[in-house]
Amino acid sequence: MIAGAPPRGDVAWGGLGALGAGVAALLLATAGRYGYHRDELYFLRAGREPAFGYVDQPPFTPLLARAMDALLPGSLTGLRLPSALAAAAVVLLTGLIARELGGGRGAQLLAAASMAVSAVLLAVGHLLSTATFDLLAWTALTWLLVRALRDGGGAWIATGAVAGVALQNKLLPLFLLAGMFVAVLAVGPRTVLRTRWPWLGALVALALWAPHLVWQVANGFPQLALSAAIAGGSSGTSEPWYVLLPFQLVLVSPLLVPVWALGWWRLARDPALRTWRAFAVAYVLVAAVFTITGGKPYYLAGFFPVLLAAGAPPVVAWARRGARRLRTGVLAAALALSLAMSSVLMLPLVPEGELAGTPVPAIHYDAGETVGWPAFAATLAAVREQVPADERVAVLTGNYGQAGAVDRFLPSLAPAHSGHNAYWDWGPPPDDAGTLIVVGLPEERLRAWFGQVRLAARIDNGVGLDNDEQGSPVWIVGERLLPWSQLWPQLRRLG
Is the separation of the CB atoms in 272 and 6 below 8 Å? Predict the structure, then answer.
């Protein structure tokens, strides 16, 4: 153990447990509203195509989606149950990090409550997504790194084990680990690197990550091409590079910025937290890398638990000085108002039919992508009725959400085909499908590839919401002019 670190007090188990349970209950209560997100539809199909990796992600989340759908078939709430539990764990771990940094019960509860009401936690906790478990992974790794930097020994092995599992979900934890390694070299404590434990932990992580790493190498590391596509703005949640840092002010809550900003300052300057100064440096390093490479703003969200944990003790001390009731009331009001704002913006509280008339879809892109998929499928089903019943028909779509909706809601037309991400790897429509129902591809391309192209319908989600699918034309095409061996490579798209 490194001398000079603040002592650890008792854990506020009751309060932390209540906060975590409250977040899980809120998320589960709203989990069944609206509908599937396009990514969830994609994960459900990917889970039925098990592999050590996909062009856009490791296997953890697709396999989890498959498992939950097998346990609770067709249940949206069941599919999202792991996300609610993961969000609760993030809240609990944030409080435990505060305890490791010397925070008492009040500081533990403030740090955990600040995370519980954050916009980013409610947003990722509502959906089954790689981002959900990535936030949990960063939080768990942070808690273990705090312990490892202080206590050494077996905590490094646990860090390596969690890192290995985390890398089977998303590759972003590499940036946390690399940032911390460089930061420890820069500001210490360098003595931990002279022991065998960090290196043993790294070997454990590598062993657990190896199946997906081998898959990436064998397939030409497609994650690099995907990252370049995202940096170029191909994702619906991509933002310009200059938005990344300002966006951090809203990921928790604008009202709670003083808590995590003070936390960064304490980690950087407070002698009592010198053992963990590397976190302040790593935050700057990783933020710079994500800014330069075009990362999404939420990529930095994994640092918020440690920043809130470090900032909570002086904020609690401030609330207990002077006009205690007033200051405590101000702090409670900030938390309550933050929860209200985060819930309205990030959870499906607005009735679906009224969503189009609110600013929610403009602020929270993913909200709009959970509306309209049953109507989308119904439109394609109606188009199928325009084709003779004895004719073999396949569906070709422009993106994985559209294809996933067919696979989920239209088993008679499944499997769908798309050139988007891993769907491209699952192959083109069969040669004996003489007629295709096509959505999401430009008309000029279809007319260059098919002798017959007819507009059959347009997508209407029924609630007037201008999301990615609204108004898209649906085509019936036939008389393919070229073999799929020539057409399929042209349809490949990453993003």
Answer: yes
User: What is the rounded CA–CA span in Å between residue 481 and residue 495?
Assistant: 28
How far is 97 from 147, CA to CA, in rounded Å?
9
Give the pLDDT confidence score for residue 324 in this predicted structure. 87
Ranking 86-95, 132-141, 357-366 by mean pLDDT, the lowest is: 357-366
* Band of pLDDT at residue 231, cut at 50, 70 and 90: confident
- 489 phi, psi to nearest 5 deg: -60, -30
10 Å Cβ neighbour count for 283?
A: 25
Task: Give the separation between CA 43 and CA 480, rounded to whole angstroms.
Answer: 30
Q: Is 453 left (phi over 0), alpha (psi -120 to 50) or beta?
A: beta
CA angle centred on 343, ends 291 and 78, rounded to 5°: 95
Contact predicate 30/348, CB 8 Å: yes
Radius of gyration of the chain (CA): 24
Cα-based angle 433, 434, 438 (whole degrees, multiple of 5): 80
* 286 contact partners, CB below 8 Å, separation of at least 6: 175, 176, 179, 300, 303
Is residue 415 within 8 Å of residue 426, measured between CB atoms? yes
Helix (H, G, I), strand (E, B) or coil at 366: helix
pLDDT digits (tens, 9 = 90+) for 323-353: 889 999 999 999 999 999 999 999 999 999 9
| pLDDT above 90 coverage of the chain, percent | 92
User: Would you tell me the crossing angle of helices 373-384 and 400-409 to the nearest 10 degrees?
Assistant: 70
Distance CA 282, CA 103 (A): 22
DSSP characters over 248-268: HHHHS-GGGHHHHHHHHHHHH
The angle at the Cα of 117, spanning 115 to 120, to the nearest 5 degrees, equals 70
Q: Does the pLDDT at position 41 exceed 60?
A: yes
Please check whether residue 484 is in contact with residue 429, taking contact to mean a CB–CB distance below 8 angstroms: yes
Give the per-residue pLDDT at 236.
57
In the predicted structure, residue 363 carries a pLDDT above the cut 80: yes
Do 346 and 119 meet the contact criterion of CB atoms below 8 Å apart?
yes
Sorting pLDDT into bands at 50, 70 and 90, what band is 233?
low
Q: Which residue has the tokens 């390596």?
A: 160
Looking at residue 240, what is its pLDDT? 80
Residue 483, preceding peptide bond in cis (omega within 30° of 0): no
The b/e string for 472-495 (b: 16+ C-beta within 10 A; e otherwise) is bbbbbbbebeeeeeebbeebebbb
Distance CA 347, CA 340 (A): 10
Closest CA to 441 of 492, 384, 495, 381: 492
